[in-house]
């Protein structure tokens, strides 16, 4: 099996993060500084799904393009995680989907565990959001500002799934694999992964940073035991769907991870 050097892996990680959630983290910090230096944080607003055009089908096109291109770094991660090796019969590969458990090998169990995790994380998130608002450390979160078209709910579902796949595959499956190859201990790897997860939510305030960092610890710890990212994707997608679609249909502020 061809083993890349640690230097190459570090460069690889920086490229992946620079194209995805590392970039989001930097923007999030700048946005937070912008908000807290212009008004009290409690007066700020964070909108998660914005309309991008006043023309219905151009807005739909922009939404779908954004979802599609956001998933490109995930494809890059799968490419990097696929380990090339040689066997006695020739060249082969270990599927990245199998390596991190992003497949349909056990759909029933993944759905059940995902639902349980969604309840475990989702309900406390609502309380944390309310507490953050009361303490003035969390902005008002608007999960969706899309106009009510026929495609709004399907696009919000796709957006929810997209966020779940990007975050869990990159922040958990990919980074924990690479951190392991850097010889980092499991607690240090989980801490780094969780702090990254919290950092790209900083634009929402300090409450979401704390909540998502804690969520990251739970998810990463579970992954180290199961080596399956699919239950995490299911849980994250369910939390997002409830928030995005629930707000769009009922207009209620919903806490979101």
Short structural summary:
The chain is built from ten helices and four strands, in the order H-H-E-H-H-E-E-H-H-E-H-H-H-H.
Defining traits:
mainly alpha; two-stranded antiparallel sheet; disordered C terminus; 10 helices; 257 residues
Description:
With 257 residues, this protein is mainly α. The chain has one domain (6-250). 68% of the residues lie in helices and 6% in strands. The strands form two sheets. A two-stranded parallel ribbon has the order 1-4. Strand 2 (83-87) and strand 3 form a beta hairpin. The termini are far apart.
For the secondary structure, the number of strands is 4
Q: How many strands, what sense, and barrel or not for the largest sheet?
A: 2 strands, parallel
What sequence of helices (H) and strands (E) makes up the elements? Answer: HHEHHEEHHEHHHH
Widest sheet: strand ordering? 1-4
Distance between the first and last residues' Cα:
38 Å
Task: Round the Cα radius of gyration to an integer and report it.
Answer: 19 Å
Helix count, DSSP H or I runs of 4 or more residues:
10
State which percent range the strand residues make up: 5-15%
Poorly predicted tracts of residues? 85-89, 252-257
Shape: globular
Fraction of residues in helix: 55-70%
Number of domains: 1
Class inferred from helices and paired strands: mainly alpha
């Amino acid at each position: 099996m061809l083993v890349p050097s640690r230097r190459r892996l570090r460069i690889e990680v920086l490229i992946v993060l620079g194209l995805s959630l590392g970039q989001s983290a930097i923007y999030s910090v700048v946005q937070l500084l912008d908000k807290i230096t212009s008004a009290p944080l409690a007066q700020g607003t964070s909108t998660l799904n914005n309309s991008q055009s006043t023309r219905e089908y151009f807005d739909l096109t922009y939404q779908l393009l954004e979802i599609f291109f956001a998933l490109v770094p995930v494809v890059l991660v799968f490419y990097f995680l696929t380990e090339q090796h040689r066997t006695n019969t020739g060249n082969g590969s270990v599927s990245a989907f199998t390596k991190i458990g992003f497949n349909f090998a056990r759909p029933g169990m993944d759905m059940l565990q995902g639902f349980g995790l969604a309840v475990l994380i989702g309900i406390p998130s609502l309380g944390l959001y309310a507490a953050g608002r009361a303490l003035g450390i969390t902005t008002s979160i608007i999960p969706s500002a899309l106009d009510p078209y026929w495609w709004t709910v399907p696009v919000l579902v796709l957006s929810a799934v997209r966020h779940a796949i990007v975050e869990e595959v990159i922040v958990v499956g990919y980074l924990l694999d690479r951190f392991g190859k850097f010889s980092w201990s499991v607690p240090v790897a989980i801490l780094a992964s969780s702090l990254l997860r919290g950092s790209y939510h900083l634009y929402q305030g300090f409450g979401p940073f704390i909540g998502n960092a804690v969520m990251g610890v739970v998810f990463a710890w579970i992954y180290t035991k199961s080596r399956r990212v699919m239950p995490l994707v299911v849980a994250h997608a369910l939390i997002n769907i409830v928030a995005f679609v629930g707000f769009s249909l009922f207009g209620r502020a919903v806490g979101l991870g």
